[in-house]
Amino acid sequence: MHGLRIEIDRDLCVGFGDCVTAAQDAFKLADDGIVVFVEPERVDREQLLAACDACPVDAITVWDSDEKRLVPGYTP
User: How far lies 34's CA from each of 8, 59, 63, 69, in Å?
Assistant: First the structure.
């Protein structure tokens, strides 16, 4: 998706939902209150990166195709 590898650390996620607020097409809170992917390919790259970086506990990590870590710490 957008040349990115995205991982959600379900042990770190506490369900604040900031990523969901920033990109509702990409993420949702599952029944257990932990975020899961919906259709991240429907969100443009910049919005997706910003949504991933919105996580206050850094439970979402994103790497580009060169394995450079983009999130946490994304700046457009």
Answer: 9, 10, 21, 23
Q: Write down the domain spans for the chain.
A: 5-71
Asked if residue 39 lies in contact with residue 26, where contact means CB atoms within 8 angstroms, the answer is yes
pTM score: 0.89
CATH architecture for the domain at 5-71? 2-Layer Sandwich (3.30)
Q: Which 3 state secondary structure label does DSSP give 65?
A: coil
pLDDT at 10: 94
Asked if 2 and 48 touch (Cβ cutoff 8 Å), the reply is yes
Q: Read off the pLDDT of each residue in 37-52 and give the average, rounded to a whole number.
A: 93
pLDDT at 35: 97
